[in-house]
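pinned: reference chain
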Amino acid sequence: MIDTHAHLDLCEGTAADLVDAAAAAGVGRILTVGREQALALADRFETVWAIVGIHPHEAAEAGDVGALRPLLTHPRAVAVGECGLDFFRDYAPRADQLRVFEAQIALANETGLPLVIHTRAADADTFRLLEAAEVPVVLHCFSSVDRLGEAIERGYHCSFAGNVAFPKAADLRAAAARVPADRILAETDCPYLAPPPHRGRPNQPAYAAITLGVLAQERGVPAAELGAQIDRNADRLFGL
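pinned: its structure tokens
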């Protein structure tokens, strides 16, 4: 299977050890998020690709978003992101977040690469701005439960992280059961959101297999079948 959203450079341990542990757990491919550091890892490991963009927390210092353009031409760059809005933490002024998000939507439209979206306490503005997107959209670490119907109608991909396995996340599990088979993805968002029994400790790509098991149980299908479906979804979406 594939971990469609990781932050390898932020994880504990060496990248090589993380990639090896993932492979041993059946997670044979990883998409890591960042900019130059993500591309360097994708160059180093044949099973790693890069999602390249500016996180909303970094929007105040972003400068010219057009500087991403040469990075996105790299053959191992497969998406723009993670980009979007975070009005929960508000680590960057909202005006800067909106500016940088709009610019990255335009850049995705220009390059034809899919968008990987971070949205937290900002769904109204996120969904409004995404009306301008002309490329496929991934709602990373899916939490927009109240917008699931709209996300499905728009054809968005919904990617579920380890928090779908948290005991109190019944709403996320119910949402995961409703996502069309050709639009569901799984991720770790490591080193964050480790699923039980690793909750409270650093996450890693190998644990995507745990999330897959939870999703498969909620959807009433074998884990191997769902893993193969997610692989096909990722291949089509990211051009792997």
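why pinned: Residues 66 and 107 are 8 Å apart (CA to CA). The longest helix spans residues 94-111.
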